[in-house]
Amino acid sequence: MKFFLISDNIDTQMGMRLAGIEGVVVHERHEVLMELEKAMHNEEIAIVLITTKLIETCPEVISELKLRQLKPLIVEVPDRHGKHKIGETIDRYVSEAIGVKL
Predict the structure, then answer these.
(1) What is the CATH code for 2-98?
(2) Confidence at residue 93, expressed as pLDDT on a 0 to 100 scale
């Protein structure tokens, strides 16, 4: 089972490649959705890492996939911009999944 990165910048991609994780750099919503679709149909990929900035391009799709799909696991990776609060995102996903505000 492999990791796969969908990133909005080359710095994150290069850092992940040093750790042995392959990936792509994209910038547009349709590119994100296309790469995510490819990763979801690749049986070797177990975890898809996506930078925060790209998740913000299609949050409704990513949220739905996180809640409904068993594989691959989609994980948000904080990017170099660092302005997004991951804790708030996790709280929102849990609240949507169980129907209770934390």
Answers:
(1) 3.40.50.10580
(2) 62
